[in-house]
Amino acid sequence: MRVLVVTAVAAEANSVAAGLALAGYTPPDTEPEAGHAPAASASPETDPARVRAERDPAGAPASPGVRAAPSRPTGPPPPVRWRGSGGHRVDVLAAGVGPAAAAVGAAAALAGTPYDLVVSAGIGGGFPALAPLGSLVVASEIVAADLGAGSADGFIPVTALGFGRDTLHPHGALTRAVARALGALEGPVLTVSTTTGTAERAAELLARHPSAAAEAMEGFGVAEAADRFGVPVLEIRAVSNSVGPRDRSAWRIGDALAALTEAFGKFPPVLESWTSHEPV
What we know:
The protein is of the alpha/beta class. The protein has helices spanning 10-22, 48-55, 99-112, 158-161, 172-182, 199-208, 219-228, 253-272; strands spanning 2-7, 80-83, 89-94, 117-126, 136-144, 148-149, 156-157, 167-168, 185-191, 214-216, 233-242. Helix 1 crosses helix 8, helix 3 packs parallel to helix 7 (219-228) and helix 5 crosses helix 8. The protein is globular and about 55 Å long.
């Protein structure tokens, strides 16, 4: 079993790695690949400021863990490979923020290595009625919530325009098994390019997607890449903030990263008992 886990930023990847370590997985390589710096150590307790800065540079305090932008474009670092018993492997990739970066990073990894499953993982906003701070959500649907067109009558999704699709479906049986193992809510996760910052925007999203549990910025990009390569996909989100009025003082990034670590400590046994040929 080979699994690719795609996060947005290094702090999320570190939290995933910390969970895999708890599950007995070990990174096989102690030396970095040529041209790449070593992966950051898995220490979620020190990472909330870094996540905030990487995802919200305009409002975040300076952090010594945040590197200046490179002078020329570079791709994401290679995935960090974690090995379990019985030949199982989980590769963890921090691909960048947003659906485009996530899709590019996932597609590049998939083009070079055959995987049995792709997982989009990280923190995100939860709709308060369903997903409180610190809780986990496993996506039953991965929805491109702002892909479409505006009009005098409101938002028109890309499917109604006839240009493509706005919903992708994870492997149902595996989604249910993972949600049970993690004690997570199973529900739609919305992918947005602009995170919600007002009550009006939250109400608009819920009017279009009444059962939505969470929003994040990468899931649909990862899912599109996985689908193009014919690989099943999952999305797992730890809730760091409520979807609604933007209030950075209420963010609980540390709690969400800790929940992500706990989730990936429980995740491997589910994967190791599953095969990609099982029915949906």
